[in-house]
Amino acid sequence: ILNVEQSPQSLHVQEGDSTNFTCSFPSSNFYALHWYRWETAKSPEALFVMTLNGDEKKKGRISATLNTKEGYSYLYIKGSQPEDSATYLCAFQAGYTNAGKSTFGDGTTLTVKP
Amino acid sequence: ETGVTQSPTHLIKTRGQQVTLRCSSQSGHNTVSWYQQALGQGPQFIFQYYREEENGRGNFPPRFSGLQFPNYSSELNVNALELDDSALYLCASSFGGNQPQHFGDGTRLSIL
Q: pLDDT, tens digit, for every residue of B13-72?
């Protein structure tokens, strides 16, 4: 059983604050790490697919880094806005699988107060 | 480009009954995965279908079964429903490999 952990479980920040959260995953048999954003009453939406150690990806105010040797990824949000409020999921894809068989963490739920 | 659609949106059943959930994959996607998401937890992988064949299964009993059709749409069937089966069921489609998945909005199943 693969263990994928996300921390913190929830986070409340003020509009304009920058924030970050962590996804920890097995350091062996790594193939890819996926980040998804899941807004209430919507479907999870893919943010990043990260495959190489040291990868950094950016999408607007959101960025992510990857360390496959130690088994963690950070997601950063710069200048949080209320529309960033969502649950952020990471999913670990092992080398013998495809993305559809990824193991998900329990998510970090971000609430941004105006 | 049509996204992933799931039906029904909500469903209420009683213990022992059977249920069928449906998913239409995004146009061109040949791989469909099903997940169960309990409150406060991340999605748990149930199984995946690729070109009408089951292509991997998570830690779920045989009473969870599925189908994929030639147009790549899919069904999830659950027999002998138990209270613990109450959850959000998500379907996701992709091209496979490490391509990100596209999710539907889910079916909320409640067992009384």
A: 999 999 999 999 988 888 999 999 998 899 999 999 998 999 999 999 999 999 999 989
Rg (CA), chain B: 13
Return the residue of A nearest to B40 by Cα: A106
| Å between B37 CA and nearest CA of chain A | 9
Assign residue B40 a region (left: φ > 0; alpha: ψ between -120 and 50; beta: otherwise).
Answer: left
pLDDT tens column, A52-65: 999 999 999 999 99
Chain A interface residues facing chain B, Cβ-Cβ under 8 Å?
1, 4, 6, 31-32, 34, 36, 41-46, 49, 51, 89, 91, 93, 97-107
B71-102 pLDDT, tens digit per residue, is 899 999 999 999 999 999 999 998 877 788 99
C-alpha closest to that of A99 among B92, B52, B44, B59: B92
